[in-house]
């Protein structure tokens, strides 16, 4: 086997690993966002007429602010103040970015 073949194989392996890491990260983020689906709908799109707001398309900063308020107890809710306590700051920011990027309909 030539040095060129070895280097080419190593490069392909590295590129493949990077792609797999990105896929795993995207899958993890979708799974994290899916924890909101029972109340807020798939991909943050609530069912029409629902009392629970859809999250899709909301500004990320607003979502982060609201989640932090739920988490600290500054904003009262039926269940969100309890659920928000289960997310780290990083997870809240990741979910907010995910929902902000989703189309509303």
Runs with pLDDT <50, length 5+?
Answer: none
Which value, in Å, is the CA radius of gyration?
Answer: 19 Å
Question: What is the average of the pLDDT values?
Answer: 87
- What oligomeric state best describes the polypeptide chains here? single chain
Counting helices, strands and paired strands, the structural category is mainly alpha
Give the N-terminus to C-terminus distance in angstroms: 54 Å
What share of the residues lie within helices? 55-70%
> What would you call the shape?
elongated
Order of helices and strands: HHHHH
The main sheet comes to: none
The count of β-strands is 0
- Count of individual helical segments: 5
Q: Beta-strand level of the residues, as a percent range?
A: under 5%
Describe the structure.
The protein contains five helices and no strands. The chain is mainly α and 105 residues long. Helix 1 (3-34) packs across helix 5 (89-100) and helix 3 runs antiparallel to helix 5. The mean pLDDT is 87.
List keywords for this structure.
105 residues, mainly alpha, 62% helix
In short:
The chain has 5 helices and no strands. By secondary structure, the chain is mainly α.
What is the secondary structure topology, with strand pairs?
Elements lengths: L2 H32 L2 H4 L19 H13 L7 H4 L5 H12 L5
């Amino acid at each position: 086997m030539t040095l060129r073949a070895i280097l080419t194989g190593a490069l392909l392996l590295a590129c493949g690993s990077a792609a797999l890491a990105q896929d795993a990260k995207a899958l993890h983020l979708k799974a994290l966002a899916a924890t909101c689906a029972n109340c807020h709908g798939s991909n943050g799109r609530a069912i029409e007429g629902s009392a629970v707001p859809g999250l899709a398309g909301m500004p990320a900063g607003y979502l982060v602010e609201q989640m932090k308020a739920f988490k600290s107890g500054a904003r009262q809710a039926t269940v969100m103040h309890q659920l928000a306590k289960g997310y780290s700051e990083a997870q809240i920011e990741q979910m907010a970015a995910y929902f902000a990027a989703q189309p509303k309909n």
